[in-house]
Structure formats: structure tokens, C-alpha cells
Amino acid sequence: MNETETKKLLQQVARGELAPDDALLSLKMQPFDDIDIAKLDTHRGLRQGVGEIIYGAGKTPQQIDRIGHALWEDGQRTILVTRMSREAEEYFNKDIPFTYYPEARAAVIGAMMPADTEAQILVVTGGTSDIPVAEEAAVTAETLGNPVKRIYDVGVAGIHRLLSHTEEIMTANVIIAIAGMEGALASVVGGLADCPVIAVPTSVGYGTAFGGVTALLSMLNSCASGVSVVNIDNGFGAGYLASMINHMGGKQ
Amino acid sequence: MNETETKKLLQQVARGELAPDDALLSLKMQPFDDIDIAKLDTHRGLRQGVGEIIYGAGKTPQQIDRIGHALWEDGQRTILVTRMSREAEEYFNKDIPFTYYPEARAAVIGAMMPADTEAQILVVTGGTSDIPVAEEAAVTAETLGNPVKRIYDVGVAGIHRLLSHTEEIMTANVIIAIAGMEGALASVVGGLADCPVIAVPTSVGYGTAFGGVTALLSMLNSCASGVSVVNIDNGFGAGYLASMINHMGGKQ
Amino acid sequence: MNETETKKLLQQVARGELAPDDALLSLKMQPFDDIDIAKLDTHRGLRQGVGEIIYGAGKTPQQIDRIGHALWEDGQRTILVTRMSREAEEYFNKDIPFTYYPEARAAVIGAMMPADTEAQILVVTGGTSDIPVAEEAAVTAETLGNPVKRIYDVGVAGIHRLLSHTEEIMTANVIIAIAGMEGALASVVGGLADCPVIAVPTSVGYGTAFGGVTALLSMLNSCASGVSVVNIDNGFGAGYLASMINHMGGKQ
Amino acid sequence: MNETETKKLLQQVARGELAPDDALLSLKMQPFDDIDIAKLDTHRGLRQGVGEIIYGAGKTPQQIDRIGHALWEDGQRTILVTRMSREAEEYFNKDIPFTYYPEARAAVIGAMMPADTEAQILVVTGGTSDIPVAEEAAVTAETLGNPVKRIYDVGVAGIHRLLSHTEEIMTANVIIAIAGMEGALASVVGGLADCPVIAVPTSVGYGTAFGGVTALLSMLNSCASGVSVVNIDNGFGAGYLASMINHMGGKQ
Amino acid sequence: MNETETKKLLQQVARGELAPDDALLSLKMQPFDDIDIAKLDTHRGLRQGVGEIIYGAGKTPQQIDRIGHALWEDGQRTILVTRMSREAEEYFNKDIPFTYYPEARAAVIGAMMPADTEAQILVVTGGTSDIPVAEEAAVTAETLGNPVKRIYDVGVAGIHRLLSHTEEIMTANVIIAIAGMEGALASVVGGLADCPVIAVPTSVGYGTAFGGVTALLSMLNSCASGVSVVNIDNGFGAGYLASMINHMGGKQ
Amino acid sequence: MNETETKKLLQQVARGELAPDDALLSLKMQPFDDIDIAKLDTHRGLRQGVGEIIYGAGKTPQQIDRIGHALWEDGQRTILVTRMSREAEEYFNKDIPFTYYPEARAAVIGAMMPADTEAQILVVTGGTSDIPVAEEAAVTAETLGNPVKRIYDVGVAGIHRLLSHTEEIMTANVIIAIAGMEGALASVVGGLADCPVIAVPTSVGYGTAFGGVTALLSMLNSCASGVSVVNIDNGFGAGYLASMINHMGGKQ
Amino acid sequence: MNETETKKLLQQVARGELAPDDALLSLKMQPFDDIDIAKLDTHRGLRQGVGEIIYGAGKTPQQIDRIGHALWEDGQRTILVTRMSREAEEYFNKDIPFTYYPEARAAVIGAMMPADTEAQILVVTGGTSDIPVAEEAAVTAETLGNPVKRIYDVGVAGIHRLLSHTEEIMTANVIIAIAGMEGALASVVGGLADCPVIAVPTSVGYGTAFGGVTALLSMLNSCASGVSVVNIDNGFGAGYLASMINHMGGKQ
Amino acid sequence: MNETETKKLLQQVARGELAPDDALLSLKMQPFDDIDIAKLDTHRGLRQGVGEIIYGAGKTPQQIDRIGHALWEDGQRTILVTRMSREAEEYFNKDIPFTYYPEARAAVIGAMMPADTEAQILVVTGGTSDIPVAEEAAVTAETLGNPVKRIYDVGVAGIHRLLSHTEEIMTANVIIAIAGMEGALASVVGGLADCPVIAVPTSVGYGTAFGGVTALLSMLNSCASGVSVVNIDNGFGAGYLASMINHMGGKQ
After folding, report:
1. What is the pLDDT of residues E102-114, one digit of tens each?
2. Contact criterion met (CB below 8 Å) for B211 and B232
3. I want to staple E239 with a disulfide (CB 3.0 to 4.6 A). Which of B44, C91, E37, E141 is the partner?
């Protein structure tokens, strides 16, 4: 459904020819435009309450530039680009608002959504090498309108570092726990917290860390309740889900 | 030892009623009772806002009976027992309120918490063989005070079955998607929903289903956003986390 | 040596023109020419009804050039080269008809076979990153004389995209379903279609995608009937098999 | 859609209120009945041109009996039951036509479809231990109306056994190649044949046979073209797909 | 070397025909007797400073009885039997001193060595299901003359339980940390302790616990220093090594 | 059909006694008899210089009895049955010469071939639990006419035990090294020996022994030259190959 | 915050100089300084009796330089830097004492601790390719004040090389056994020694060496007692643990 | 044992002070020199009847040059260097006889041993990409004095190619079967041959070829007798073992 069709549909509603409920369903079910690179899902913002997201991995700088501008022209004002290389950043035509977050390897076209809740998302990492994944999660959550608090390098081997943040962990609304190596952070945080914990294994480590598989398995077997897991290094997925949960209050 | 007790302790020190050295020893939190089978964490209700849970796997009928009664005597009025065999159920001394849910292989000592929210948790399965895991999730969520809606046997190979429930999926508050074999249900549900989806791989299948590993991997790689995963067959974990998310509204 | 030649040989024995011992030696089928790089199977066209194929991976530009020309001189007029790098393409001496398909990383020496059937092969992909594999499959099928229809970037996470092609899926003769990550596309397509579905896992994804293994396992466990699987990224194999099936009608 | 609804729909078509094409689409998209055990897909026969199939694994004798009779009452006259144990067979109420095939661990309620093609499906096994899987494939194909030829115990270690059947392999319409251990049968058969080969790895073997994984990997890496693979021990899937391909001629 | 030969050797030393150093070397290099079941290494007590050990797994009750009595007759007075089933325990002829430890599935023929050090070995477990492995470790260490302190069921998900034992952990001489599931206990204990930590993964857990592999990988990747790992469920190995380390003081 | 028969056939063609077409059909080697259980390869004795072998695993006592008697009637006088259970042994009709070797789980119908060489095969094991596999290897080699020397329970952890047999290892003609757990025996034996070493991993061990996989990997990575490996627990394969090598002298 | 400081704090409360609420906040142990790169644990020296360690992998030359100087300014006089590249070494500002050990890829800022024990640590390797890992272990142990003896390239395939060092192995206090490929060194050394053996698998090898996994599995399954294992290539971890054990005597 | 010691030992024999047998044992047990790079095993020629071998992988050009010259000076006249890069070849000081075999990535310092047997080793490969491994095997065998016959690119998918060499396979003394992908070559060759077959899996293939693991597993599960396996790409090991077997005749 393109812009013309969407307008027509809304006019039908305006004229009383279409019930709003039916229009909503139509908009949800057939919301995509067709440009040659990929079928853009330009109503995702409507359907899932968030802006559009471009997954930059495997896309050329040219493709990212083109899709980004197409979405902007479609009217999107908050477009997150993840896994965006320095090369893509340099290539991008900055004739539209654009901010790059190097540690997160992400960019925002337009502007972050304004924070519409006071509930904080806590992002915790085991080590300093986990920070790029953490920043991807944090920038994603911030882009989607969430206040984010970062606590980095508090791995369980020096448990006192982590425990000095017990207060923040116990009062958090949602926690993203990010760790490589043995991934024990998720279990300890999950035991202290009484909110959902999204565990993100990272590919940090060597030998039997197996590129994040050990941390993943460890997190899946967490003896703490309230912990769920996303793919290795999937900071975006964690940030997106955390935002979804953090906005749950508005439903009631 | 809760915050009040800790403050009391520090005030005793301030009043000179307690030597600093003795306070140092006491300041190590010890909020648990000690019975011989396992150190019961009888303040969990306070700390995490839920009743007590007994993980029945690997425990003898005698142990479950003993821990269950100890918790009841401690004042717990909602005690969930998971992975409880028929043998354990038969052995259990029913001199206290006790209900057994055979499909879920679970029991509730005392009573389920009354539903304190109208927001529903949706439990969806790919096949009929996934039902025991689904019931474990559903009974867990109900015990913790959530309305639960079940939609079973709507695997993606007959996508029209699943799509006939599009309305329920699009309006759900939290979804638990349970599937074995190739686990594709999580991706399709995740694509339709705009709420958190907790994916539970099950050990249903044969050959390269590898006891649930294929479904797990599939779910971790879901191309839909908002999906996170728990351990294979971990219905309890999914139900617990879903309840946590479903109660988020109360925080704001 | 084909059946005619063999019969001729036995008739020579019958006529006393050939000693039984010499015939014994000749009776070992040797239908191949010997050039120094590889024993070319120049009768494959006869035996399997298709042209000759050069698997370019692991061959130097020089080797591909040499084998390609040798086959052309042998009389082959449809020679498909797969996994052909840009370097090999540039090196190739274009004194014989030669067309390069960059997205498919493939070339045709001579010309594609004319389409000898109206039955279409449908090539479907989950994402845009799967396109190189899809093009290898499509170009293979077209080279072997099949009409091919492409539907790209219709992953199950936005199921409406895929469902908007329900008609084409339901009326296809053979479908090649190509996807990385969780590979759920095969199951959904398999459930909608009533024709053979050849599933091709791709190495698209990261972390627990394990270079295509997760998609492979998912496809092998498809709960839909009529689905079979080829090796990761094996677009050629899928295109070849699809062509074989698409030409089955001629046998009856 | 239940019987009443289906009748209503057909009456609309009869009265000219609904175009036949639209009715067909409706029937394809919403074809299931609801009984308490599982949502029966009672129009599969219409949609995919075959009878109904009950996957017996994980179902109790009572469930199989009930579903079988429900399908019969719904008008199905060819119902295949796979993975049906001796216990289920004994329990089944034989007040309706019922035939059990012990080697295939399968049964047919009603009758096999009459063979509607002369094209044969060839079922080949490497050893005698692969026969149960082979029989599941053969009985499935026969039930769906295909002539089937069986060649068992012709593993490649005694290559002359297999080669003595070169004629049958070279003239087959579709081949199902079934082997455990190293699974080399698929490659050799695939090299000899010029028709689609469906390879079925079996769990036959010990040690590094890894329950069929080695045969599976071997088959996926077959250097022969035209070979695709289904799950370990999935005789049904192979027979179903073979039947689909074997009936392709009717489309042109 | 049997008793007669050993005596002869010692007489040579006594007569000054053999230097003590040479005799010691001879004794170390050729210390075994031959009985028909297995070549008993009857000087292990001499060589490694400990009694003899019988690994009971895979041995019949008859074999254990026979080896046990043979060692006793050879003069051994502290013989540990590990992995000894109830059946073997019942069969054993108790005409020689014998004590069975059911939780540890172990027995001592003769008597435990008297504790010859005050330094304690601390045995810590994550859950109650880890206790059999812990008891195997503890009984092994006690048999070899070490004081042992047990702290069970202090998994990291309820970190306060573990922290209430900080004092004992910080002052321990050697720690054996035993856990299944995600095995995070080793990292937290390793971070708190300043003594060697021997980590023992157990096969406790389900699904992706993979029979102890997840705990093993987690422990190998511990971010704490001073942690090393033994095989899954290898309580004996941990107890033996802990005893070795706990007796190190005597060397200086 | 052997070479003589083939020549005879061609001579018949030369004499006009046989039509070329008929000869063409016959020329496909068919050196096997057909009984209903399995196609017996009754010329294997001629082709590979050994008697016939029945692989008993997966065959019923009835099948073994039937095949054994069929081979005997065919004239075979040395028939080895491997993986033969006690049940099969008891069922076997002993109206023909039959000897059962319980530790090897093997039997010989007829008689072992007389030793036709003085060169010995050395069978070495790491532990006592490896003996069943070792006996299968030893009995196989003896059946095929080889003198065999056994050295059991000489694992590398007590290296002096193994070194006390250095002389035998250094002078052996072929060695079969059998070990489970870490499989280090193959490397040490391979380093001492200057003859071919056939390594057999066994499924002895627990936890990370992974049913023989660890021993297998260890043996494949042996830093000693002259070592090759067979499947886990494949005593028969090792004995057969050792016999082949041990008879090599006769060729020169 | 150390024990003295904590006691001081409680005494301040006792004297009324500090409000209980403020004490409550401070009582969360915070013994670390905060610089922007990582939270330095500057009391580790006190708590674990060793200097500070910088894990160089994943840190930029700038970060290492900065952390190194910060620790020196904090008063640390023995700072070990592991996994330090040539680039980092060249960048490091040598205005403070600095020694680089190229084979170990490690450096010491300040000076090694003087050897405070005569007990030696023995470092043994299977091959020359294992030397970098061995040197990391040796330099770590030397930095922490231990005499170290190196015996390199004594793999078990030439067992006489290793046995020529039997005396040193039998009299060692702690042994670090380092090997890639099949890792059998640990078992043989473990069988000869009567002291703790720390086994370090290395990533040396190819094919089924799987980057050290085979050596790791082999070492975990060592049939010798007293052997424990650390992560692949973890020379630092082995050296650190060996030092800990080698200093045990001082405790008694 | 260095040259001086060896001379002294031989003088003792000459003077009758040492029995020749004892001297032989001494020479076998302590045969190594010490140069700084690696402990050279300079008597390997004596002990195992072959020249010295330098494994070039992981060694610098300088190290190979140095070890090669040291061995030459020690009197070795046939020194094989495997895994030798072009760089190492260019660096090597050719002041001593030196021949480089580029396809085999190997060199011979001095000269190949003259062929001392007429028995041939047959080297067979499945594809052209397997040739480097095959040449490493062939050059190794030739260096050790064996006639070698090569048959390359005869994979089983075109079985007639392989069968045209049936004569050579059936009359071979030892066969080295080399293949990647599905590795079926070993089974078919093993079934045709009546001599030992050494199977070498190669890392040729993609996707689920898993770098040679699939071929390895396939070969370990070969249903043919007389087949054993070496590590992936281990051409040297196969050539060395084949030579050992090919020289067996001399022992009798």
C-alpha cells in the first residue's frame, strides 16, 4: 500500500465509508512500499509503535544511503541504522538530519524519539570489551524514547563491583545484562533483580568461549527466574525488546 | 534481613547497644531459614513480589512434601510446585490445600493468586505435543495472578490456522510461543505481534530436531524483533517472565 | 562409450573381429576424454539431458578458460560456469559466446537452452542478502530451459509480504525457498504450496546462525510435507534439481 | 470452516452469489474443523491432492483411534497413519476398513488410492537395517497412488550389487535412496540416475554414525547433482515428496 | 615387582649392595603386581603419598570384592572405592573393615587416614542435586587425611546465600566449587577467594545444560583467576587434587 | 561371476552360442546368491582372500541362524559372526561346528583359519573396560589366521606398565591400540613402535569422554607417525585390517 | 574499602559522627578507583597477595599505556601486562620501568617480585609451537615470585625424550603441562608426577585438532589423578594458579 | 646422546665391554641431540627405518633452513620437509642438495631413497581440488622408497570413471583414498580392493562439508572392511603409513 492508497483509505474513513476499525486492520495488514533494493515496511512505526530500522550489515554504503533517504522522504522522522560501518557513515549524504554513534556502530536519521516514560532501562556489562554491544542496545533504547542508565565493567569475578550497584539493580524497570566469556553476569543480576532481565551473550573471549556460544548456553541455563536470552552480540534486539517492555505501562 | 532490620541494627550501633565488630558480622544479609534439605529463601515473596516456587525435578516425593509443608507453616499461601510427578502427587499429605494440574505436571499448595490485572497472556503452541510445556507456562502465569488465553496446535505449516487468530495475536499484552521441530512459530508470531514474545523451544521432534536444539537455534535467529528465548522445555521460566512483564503497568 | 558403441563392440566379437580378451578390457565404460586438468565428462549432456557444468570454485582463471574452451571445441553449446569470480570473468578469452551474471557469480558459455516448457519455477528469498544464492539458482534453471519467477525479500517476520504472493505460491510448479537466519520461510511456503519445495539454507546471519547450520536444521525439520533440502548456499544444486522436476511432464 | 459453512458457501456458488474462483480460494484458506484433540485439516485432500495423514508418534492409541474415525466420518476414504505402534494397531476399532503394514509401522484406513500413473518410484537401501524406513516411504507412496519398485541391501561397499541394477536406476522416474552409516549410496545413485533423487539418512550405525548425522552430512555434500535430503529416518516425507514429483506430468 | 622382590631389594640395600637412592628409583619405576583382573599398582601409596583407589564404575561386585581383598592382603590399610553401587556394597564380604558412604556412592576399606593438617578444604555446591558429586569429593579428601567443610545449595541466583559465607571462602586453603546448569558458582567463588579453586561441572540440568557441558564451558571461561576444571561429575578427581594441594605446606 | 566365467561368456559370444544382447545383460557382474534376508556375497572369500563375515548387530537370532547355515551349505568353512548376543548364541542350531567367544561377543562357524604366518599382531588396551573391544579384534585376527599377543590394562597414566612391554612393542609386526577416555595410548605406542598402529577408540569413560569421541579425536591427532584410526568400538574392523597388513609379506 | 576502613566507619557511627543512613550507603564495599577506561581494582594486591594484572587483548596501545601509568601512580610496583602486541609495546611511554618479553607477548611494569620460595614450578611442552603459551605461563609465574624450570618439546610420540626428565618431573612442586594436537602429555606427566599438574591445551594443530578442543577434551579425560585444566592457550591462568599453589606452604 | 657419547658406546661394544644387543637398546632409547630450536631426533632413521622429517608448519624459513642444515651435517642424506611455503623454499640456502615439489608443498634435502620394492602404492582422489593433499602423500611415499601410481579426479558421482580403474584398484598393494565433500570414495574403493586402504579426508567443500569433518565421519563409517582413517588433509601421515605397510614383506 503506497501513500496514495493510504490517503484514499483515510478519506474513505473521513467520509464515513469505512469504519475506523476496519481501516486500522487494513493498514496493519498491507503496509509496504516497493523500492528496488528491498520492500520497505514503511508502516512499521504505526504497527509496532516505533520508527523504522535499517539493519546495516551486508548492505553497501550506497544502499544504506538510498534506503535512508527513501524512508525520510516517506515521512519517517526517526530512523535507526544499526551495524553501520565508518565507510557507510562517511558516504552518507548528510543533507538530512543524521547523527552517528561510533561506539554503537549505529546512526539516527532524523532525531531520537523524546523520552515518554520515566522508567529507566539499565544496561550492565561484564567487561569493557562488551561495550560496543551495550552501546548498540543503549542507543536503540534511547532512540525509541527510553531513559537509559549504563553500568559497565562489573563482571562477577569482582563481585563487590557489581554489588555496589545493588540499589540500581533492585529498582530497575528492565535490565539488559551483557557479557561474554562465561556469561555468569546474567545469573547474578537475575538473582538480585525483580524485573525482566534480557541477557545478551557477546563474542568476547577466546578458546572455549566459542565466539559467544558458552555465554549463550550459560545464560539459557541461568538458575535465576525472569531471564531470557537473545542472539550473540544482538544489542539491537535487546534494546528493542527492552523498550517494548518499558512502555508496557501505557497499556493498562 | 530486610532494610528495616538493617537500619535497626545500625541504630543499635549508634546507641552503643551493639559493638561495631558484631554489627560487621550481622551486616552480611541472611534473609533465609535453614531446614536440612535446602536453604529456603522465605523472603522471596517480599523481594520479588511472588509466592514461593519448588522445582520438583530431582527431588524425592518425601522432600517435596517436607519443603511444601515447611513453606506453608512459614506463612506462604501460594506455593507452586513444578515438574511434580504422579508419584510425588500421590505421596503428598493433603492436610493443607493442594491442587494438581496433570497436563502441566505442576501443583499449587494453597491457592493461585487472584488475577490483579485484565491484561492477558497468550500461550500459543505449534503442535499438540507441545501442550505439556504450554500448560506448565500457563499454570505458572495463572498462579501468579494473570488471565491466560491458550491457542494450541497452530503450527506455521498450516499458516491459515495461525492467521485465523491474527486479531488475538495483534492485541495481546505478552505472548508465549512454544514449538519444537523447526520452531518457526516464534518468527511468524513475532512478526504479527507488537508485544514481547517469549519463545520456548520444546524437545518435540526426531532426528535433526536434536531434542530441541534446532528449535532453540531457530528462535534465537528469529528475524522478528521483540522475541527472546528461554531454555528448552522451560515452560515455568516463560510463565514467570510473562507474569513479570504483564504486571509492569503497576510501576508507573 | 555409449550403448551403440558397446553393442558394436559385442557384434565385432560375434563376427570374430575382436578377441574376447580385448573386448573384456574395452567393456569397462570409458566415455570420457582426458585433458590434463580434469577428466571431462563430455557425454553428460547425453546421459542426463543437460549441458556441461563447470564448478568454478577452487579453479584458477586459467583453468576455467581452458576447460571452457575445450568443452566448446568438443561441441557443447550450453556451458554453465558457477562460482566464477570477477577475476576469472575478466581473464576469460571471449573469442567464443560468453555472458556473465554478476549477482549470480555465474556465466554461460554459448547460450541458455530455449525454454521448452511453460511451467514456471518460483524462486523465493527471505531477505535481500539471500539474493546471490537465489540468482545462482535462477540462472541455473534458466540456462537449463525453464521460465523462472523471482519473489525476493518476503521473510516470515513480515508474513503479510509473503501472503500477498499466496496465489503465485499456490499455483507454482516447483518452488525454491531460500533463507538464512532461522530459515522459517521453507515451512511457511511448504504449508501454502502443493508442489515440491526445494529449501536452500544460506550462510546469512551472525552468532548462532552458525554460517547456515541453523537454517539448514530448521528446514530439515519443517513440519510441512513436500520439502527437501540441499547444502548451505547451494543455489546451483537447487536450480538443477528444480529443472529436473520441472521437466518431468515430458516423461509421461 | 465446518461442514455447515462449507455447504452454505457452495449454495452461494449455486445461486450465483459467489464466483467459483472465490469459493475455491475460501475453501483453500479456511479448511479446518475443530475436534478436541487437534485441529483437523480436513480439506488437505482438496488442497494438496492427497488424502489425510495422521502422524502417530506421540499420540496415544486412543487419540489415533478417535482421529481416524473422525476423519472417516468426515468422508475421507484414504487415511495414512505413520509411526503407528503395535499397541495402537491392536487398540484400533476395526469397524472401518483398516490395513496394518508392520515393517513400515504404518496403516491405511480405507484404501490406498489406485495407481493413476505408470511412472515408477524406485526405493533403494544400503542395508537390511534400513528397511523399516524404506517401507514407510514405499507404503506412503503406494497409498498416494504410485507404483513402487524396491531394491534393498545394495550398499556401495559391494558396488557390483548396486551396478547390477544400473538399468533400473537409469530409467527410474524418481528415486528414494536410503542409507545409514556413511550414506554414500546417495552419491553413487545420484551419479548414475538422471531423475530426482530424494536421499533419506537413517539412524543405522554406531559410534561416529551419530544416529544418522554422518549419513545426513554425507548426503548433503553429495558431489552428484539432482540429490536433495530429508530428515533422518523420515521415510514418510520422502514417500510424500516422491509421489508429488511422480505426479508432475499431469500438470502440463 | 611383588612382595618377595621388594624384600630382596631392600635386603640388598641393607647389605650395602644397593644405594638407597637407586632402590628408591627402582621402587618407583616398577611397582606393580599382577592379578588376573587388573594390574594392581600396589605402591601408589608410596609413590604418590596416598592409599590405593579402586574405580568402581564398570567393575562387577565380584571384581571389586576381589581387588579390595587383594589390596588388603597386600598390606594396604586405606583403600577408597569410588562409584560403588548398592549392589556392590551388599555383595562385598565384610570380613575386613569396610564403611560405605551412600550419598557419595563410595566406600573405604580399612580406615580413613587421620587428618595430618589443620588446613581445611571447602566444598561448595550450587544446588542440592549437586550433593552426590560433592560428597564423592568430600569423602575422597577426608579419606586422604584432610579436614573438610561443606557449604551446600548456595547458587549465585540467590547471591546473598553465598555471600553470607564470604568469610569462609576468603580464608579457605583450597575450594572445590561444584555446580551444574550455568556453572556460574565457580566464577563468583573464584573472585572472592585467594586460594586455588577446583571447579567441578555436574550433569545437573536439562535442555541446553547438555549433561554438564554448559557448566564445563562456563567454568573454563571463568573471568576469575586461580580456577581450574576437572571432568563432568568428577568429584573424586577434585577431592584427590584438593588433598594434594592441601598437603603442599609440608614441602617447604 | 568370476574372470573365468566372464571369459567363458565372451567365448560363447565368439562361438555364436550367445547373442550380444544377452551377453550385454550378463556382463553386469552378479557374483551373489539371493536369499530373502540379505543378498549374500558368497564370493567374498575368493575376492578378498578371507572367509565370510556376518555382522550380527540389528539381526534377529533367527536371521543369524539362517544366514549362518546358508553360508555353511554354500561351502564356507570359516564364518565369523560379530556382535552376537547371548540370545542369538543360545538360539543358534549347533548341528554345524560352532564356537562362541563371550568376551568378544563373537562366534566362529566352522573353524578358525590355521595360522599361516609367524608374524604376530599385538593387541594393547589402556584399561580393563576396553577388553570386549580388544577381544573382538583379537578373535577376528585369529579367525583370519594370525598369531595374536594380548597386553591389556597398560594405560599411559602408569607409563611404567606400558614401558615394561617396550620390547614387544618395538618388535611387533602390526599393533592394535585400544583405549577410551583420552586415548593417549595410541600416541605413546605409535612413538615406540616402528610398525603400523591401528588405533581403536572405545566408548569407555564418562562426561566429556562423549562416548568415545574424545578418544577418537585424540587418536586422529596423534603426533606419532604410522597411526591410523577406525570407528569407535570397531574391534572387528581393526582385526580385519591388521590381518590384511600382517599377510602382506606373501605378496612379494 | 578494606576491613580497617570498614571498622573505622562503624566506629564513626558508634561515636555519632556518621548517620546510620549514610553508613548504610557506604557499607557497600567500594574498594576501587574509577578512571574512564575501566574500574581499576587497585586493592587486588592486598586481597589476593599479588600485583595488578592488565589483560591486554582487546585493549588499544593507548588504553594499555594509560592504565599502566595509572596503576604505577597508584603505587603498584609489579604490574604484569599479558597479550601485549609489539605495537602496544612500541607505543608504551617508557618513562617508568618496563620490560617486554616477546615470546610470551607479555611485559612487566616495575619489576618482577623477588622469588620468595625455593620450590620450583616446572613448565613442560609437547612441541616447539606451544612455546608462546608456555612463556606466558612462565613469565607470569616468575613475575609473581616463583623459580621456574622450562622443559620444552618433549611430546609423548618420542616418549624417551620425556622420560629423560623423569627425575625433574617426580620431584617438581607444581607442573604446568602444555600441549596441542592430542594433548596426551598431560596424562603421561600426570602419571609420573606426585604433585598438582595444571594442563593447558593449545590451539596448535590442524583439521580435527579443532583449535585446541581435542587437546582440551583429552586433558579433561586424563586417566591420571591430580590433573586439572584451564582454557585453551590460557598460559596466564596456568601461571597464576601455579604460583598460588607454589606459595601454599606459607599458610601453615 | 650426542656424537661423542655414541662413539664411546660403540667403542665399548668393540672392546667387548658391552653386548651388541644392549648397545642397540641404548641407541634406540636415548637418541637425541640438542640444538636450540628443537630436540632433533637424529636416530629416527635407525629406529624406524626411514630418514628424518621436518614438519614445516609453524616454523619460520630461518628455522627450517637451520634444522635442515643441522640434519644434513649430522649425516642424514634423505630429509623430507612438509608444509613448506614458497617463502621458506626461497629462503633456504641451497648449498646442499635440495628439491622442491610445489604441488605437494614439500621438499627433499639430499635425495629420495631409491625404490627398494616393486609393490606399488596407489593414490586416488575424488576431485582436482584434492591434489595438493595427494601430492603430499605421493611425494612422502616416493621419498621413502616406494613406486607410486596416481589416479586423480575419479569421484563416485561419475562412478564409471572410477570403475575404469578397477584393475589397478584390485591389484594394488596399498591404496591411499583422498576425498573431500562426502568422502564416499573410500567406501567404494574399499569395496573393490583387497588391500589396506588409508582414507584421507580433505577440507575441500563448503557449507556442511565443515572443513573436512563430513568426509572424515563418512570414512570412519565406511561399510567396507580394510579401511582406516588419518587426520583431515594429512597427506604426509597417509604416505608414511602406506610406505610402512608397503615394506612389510621384508619382515618375513
Report:
1. 999 999 999 999 9
2. yes
3. E141
Q: Report how far residue G170's alpha carbon sits from residue G163's, in angstroms, rounded to the nearest whole number.
A: 11
8 Å CB contact of C182 and B187: yes
Cα–Cα distance, B223 to B184 (Å, whole number): 10
Are residues F211 and D207, on separate chains, in Cβ contact within 8 Å? yes
Nearest to F24 among C10, C16, C24 (CB): C10
Q: How, if at all, do strands E78-82 and E106-110 pair?
A: antiparallel
- Calculate ∠ Cα E27-E33-E35, nearest 5°: 175
**Nearest-angstrom CA–CA distance, D145 and D124:** 19
How far off is chain D from B130, nearest CA to CA, in Å? 10
CB contacts, 8 Å: F48 with chain H = 194, 225-226
The answer to whether residue F63 scores a pLDDT higher than 60 is yes
Question: How far is C-alpha D166 from the geometric centre of its chain's CA atoms?
Answer: 25
Q: Tell me if residue E85 falls in helix, strand or coil.
A: coil
**pLDDT, tens digit (0-9, with 9 covering 90-100), for C155-168:** 988 888 899 999 99
Nearest CA in chain G to A159: G29
Residue of F nearest to D181 (CA): F231
- Using the Cβ of H161 and the Cβ atoms of chain C, whether some distance falls under 8 Å is answered with yes
Residues in chain B within 8 Å Cβ distance of A221: 231
Residues in chain A: 252
Kindly report the number of other CB atoms within 10 A of residue F75's CB atom. 8
Q: To probe the interface with H, which of D160, D187, D208 has the most H CB atoms within 10 Å?
A: D187
Q: How far is CA D108 from CA A49, A93, C152, D146, E237, in A?
A: 51, 66, 40, 15, 57
Tell me the one-letter amino acid at C145.
G
Contact A177, A122 (CB under 8 A): no
How many Å apart are CA G235 and CA G143, to the nearest integer? 13
Per-residue model confidence as pLDDT tens digits over A113-162: 999 888 999 999 999 899 999 999 999 999 999 999 999 999 998 888 89
Q: pLDDT band for F207, please (50, 70, 90 cuts).
A: very high
- Are D223 and H182 inside 8 Å of each other by CB? yes
Q: Are H133 and H202 in contact (CB under 8 A)?
A: yes
Q: Which three cell numbers stand for residue G170?
A: 617426580
G77-91 CB burial, b ≥16 within 10 A, e <16: ebbbbbbbeeebbee
- The pTM of this model reads 0.86
What is the end-to-end Cα distance of chain F in Å, rounded? 28
CB H224 within 8 A of CB H187: yes
| DSSP SS3 for B61 | helix
Q: DSSP 3-state assignment of D155?
A: coil
Q: Which residues contact F17 (CB under 8 A, 6 or more apart)?
A: none
Distance between CA atoms of residues C215 and D225, nearest Å? 21
- Element at D55 (helix H, strand E): strand D52-55
C-alpha cell at C38: 580434469
How far CA H151 is from CA of B169, H131, H135, H165, H166, in Å, comes to 62, 10, 11, 8, 11
Given CB atoms, is G98 within the 8 Å cutoff of chain F? no
Contact D178, D198 (CB under 8 A): no
Q: Identify whether the C-beta of residue A179 lies closer than 8 Å to the C-beta of residue A155.
A: yes
Res. C26: pLDDT tops 60: no
- Using the predicted structure, report yes or no on whether residue E4 has a pLDDT greater than 70: no
What would the grid cell of residue G54 be? 592488565
**Which of H210, H212, H186, H184 has the alpha carbon at shortest distance from H197?**
H186
Which of helix, strand or coil describes residue D126? coil
Task: Outline where DSSP puts E strands in chain A.
Answer: 52-55, 78-82, 98-101, 106-110, 121-125, 148-151, 174-179, 197-201, 227-229
